[in-house]
UniProtKB/TrEMBL annotation:
Occurrences of domain FERM (ranges): 5-293
Coiled coil in keyword set: yes
Keywords tagged on the record: Cell membrane, Coiled coil, Membrane
Binding site for a 1,2-diacyl-sn-glycero-3-phospho-(1D-myo-inositol): 60-63, 276
Main location: membrane
Protein name as catalogued: Merlin
Cited InterPro entries: Band_41_domain (IPR019749), ERM (IPR011174), ERM_C_dom (IPR011259), ERM_FERM_C (IPR041789), Ez/rad/moesin-like (IPR000798), FERM/acyl-CoA-bd_prot_sf (IPR014352), FERM_2 (IPR035963), FERM_central (IPR019748)
Amino acid sequence: MPKTFDVRITTFDAELEFSVEKKCTGKELFDLIVRTLGVRETWYFGLQYVDKKGVVSWLKFNKRVLDQDITKEDPVNLSFRVKFYPEDVAEELMQEITQHLFFLQVKEAILNMDIFCPPEASVLLASYAVQAKYGDYDKEFHKPGFLANDLLLPQRVIDQYQMTADMWEERITSWYAEHKEMRRDEAEMEYLKIAQDLEMYGVMYFEIKNRKGTDLWLGIDAHGLNIYERENKLNPKISFPWNETRNISFHDKRIKPVDKSSPDFIFHALKLRVNKVILDLCVGNHELHIRRRKPDTMEIQQMRSLAREDKMRRQIERDKLMKEKQTREEIMKQRDELEKKLLEFQEEASRVKEALSPTQSLLEDWCFTSSSNAVDGEEIKSEEMGELLAEKARVAEEEAILLGKKASDAEEEIKRLRLCLSKQSGDERIAIERRAREAGEERFKRVLQEAEARKREALILREDLMKSRQAERLAKQKLVEITSSPELFSRYSDPREIIADIDRSVNQLMDGDVNQISREHERERNGSIQQQLQDLKTQMEGLKISDRQTRWDYIHDENMRRGEDKYSTLQKIQTETSTARVQFFEEL
């Protein structure tokens, strides 16, 4: 029986416990975890732990778990965390579980104030978090105070404004109500798309020194290496993108990203252990940067296809649910209308009954009076009643005789008509034939009109067919010209490859059109969001407590006044040559 040890894996919303062999490597344990969680985009994640010296480190895959510098507890505690970030979450993250794990980690970092987030953006992000948790807003169900137990805003933001919990909830709910019909995965993706534009998103910071001994921050992210002044983690002073970095090496506490066209860029970490973590993150981000710029592997293509199918399936299910919901709402509306009409009828009946009450009383009084005089007039009424009945009997007898005569006349007329029809000739026959001919001509006109319509349709179809055949001939001619080219056959050894390449080209063109439309829609949406954020900031400005603003708040506000953001800052500081940037780093 092999010896085992227990390990506890913590995610942001679950805990997993395993019993594994003592010779288990980091890769074997990691594979076991991702299979359990259902994660296929494994390259973004790692197993994090705090080593014996208190340094946050990542488990190495090529070594045994127990041979690494982890605290030997029972069970061994490790955290399943995002280790590397994509350049664009919407383009790169495919699986829903991957998006969910990213969402949980980024949300935690914002709430813990590890990522700076301005107040107005914090409110917007909170509204998406509420949508992801509670689904569509329903004013009948989501009463005031329903967010009282949820941590949705960084404490720094709450402390900076003279606003009660109810006021914050009102601001968040007003945005939340606008996210109706948004699924959980869509709300989480919208959260990430906004969060990735924050200056500190996806950046891992390390304390370093340059050759002069100046204390600086090194920031490592999906775009490259950034150098920050110690008092400012928002605006990098220098940036070295990954496409300028050919190799990375370290010696003792020095790390040197190697670029043959520039002098060595060397910085010193405070601890050797930290140096190893920095090197690990640099190598991993650099590899992902290169891989993003290569064609997708078959595995990635399959994952993208499955993700599209899954998204389409969820969309169909949502449309079906929305249709059922709409049908139920219509039925409920009709029921309410019927109940309303029934109530109106009942009220009308009550009013009529009330209006008839005096009349009924008078009638009862009259009946009572009549009954008292009935005995006196009984003989007179008997004589009058007899005369009335005799008169009615006489009239009925006359009507019966008259009806009998009319029936007899009608029967004789029918016999006469039948005899005439059997012996018709001359003018009568001509008149009948004329009426028949007129009826036939009318029918012939209708048939002729229908035939003309069918003829016009046939002409249109024939023209479409000719155009289609002409296009087919041109396509075949073009294909012959292409396939007869020696260049083509130097590139393809199998005709099926040509067809596959043509299909790919067509798909790329179609995808390009779709992506262009998507980008235009995204720009319009982003512009609308930015305007709403600005409006919210203006509304909250009067409630701000000035002396509670942090250095980062002032830096962010200054960036906004200058019209700068995360991407424009990076673009600006990368305009200098690598040599000039290295020299600037040494002078900091």
